[in-house]
Write a sequence for this structure.
């Protein structure tokens, strides 16, 4: 059974909900690089600065952090990664060798609607659109890469949580 899994999807696609459900089912952890960096931030000023500016951590440091995390015991039987890789250079530096890549897709219009509803302070239409532009720019190359490897599965993120989860589990 596939156990090294990557989740890709825009904010608002339900990606983290689906990743958590699948992780529970497979009894493997979800590793989120965003969470890792947020946890590291209080102890590391350089990370704190990057996060507060909304910039990306450099590829070298990121790949090292992920490689180290995936060597820990709880990842022995597999893992679900959320947030890494963000680009092809990161794959070159450290390749987690996924068995399966789940691309949870939602049309941009629906993503914007969902995020506007959420009503978080940084969720003005303008900032949502800016984040989404960056997201689609970053992920296009990754999607091509994994599509070429034949391990990418695109799943429609519109619909009920349970139905989507069932569909994801079909690909294991
Ligand atoms: P996220 O929760 O995925 O939006 O990540 C929050 C922040 O963590 C990002 O804005 C980046 O600063 C950093 N980060 C997370 N994953 C990566 C990555 N693969 N490469 C570089 N920076 C990352």
């Amino acid at each position: 059974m596939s156990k090294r899994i990557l989740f890709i999807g825009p904010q608002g696609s339900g990606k983290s909900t689906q990743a958590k459900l699948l992780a529970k089912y497979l009894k493997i952890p979800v590793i989120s690089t965003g969470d890792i960096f947020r946890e590291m931030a209080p102890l590391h000023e350089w990370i704190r600065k990057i996060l507060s500016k909304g910039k990306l951590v450099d590829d070298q440091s990121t790949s090292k952090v992920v490689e180290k995390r995936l060597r820990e015991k709880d990842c022995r039987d597999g893992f679900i990664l959320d947030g890494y890789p963000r680009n092809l250079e990161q794959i070159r530096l450290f390749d987690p060798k996924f068995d399966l890549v789940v691309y949870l897709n939602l049309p941009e219009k629906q993503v914007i609607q969902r995020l506007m509803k959420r009503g978080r302070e940084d969720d003005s239409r303008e900032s949502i659109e800016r984040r989404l532009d960056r997201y689609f720019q970053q992920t296009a190359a990754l999607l091509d890469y994994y599509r070429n490897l034949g391990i990418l599965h695109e799943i429609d993120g519109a619909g009920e949580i349970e139905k989507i989860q069932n569909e994801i589990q079909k690909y294991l």
Remarks:
- The chain is about 55% helix and 15% strand.
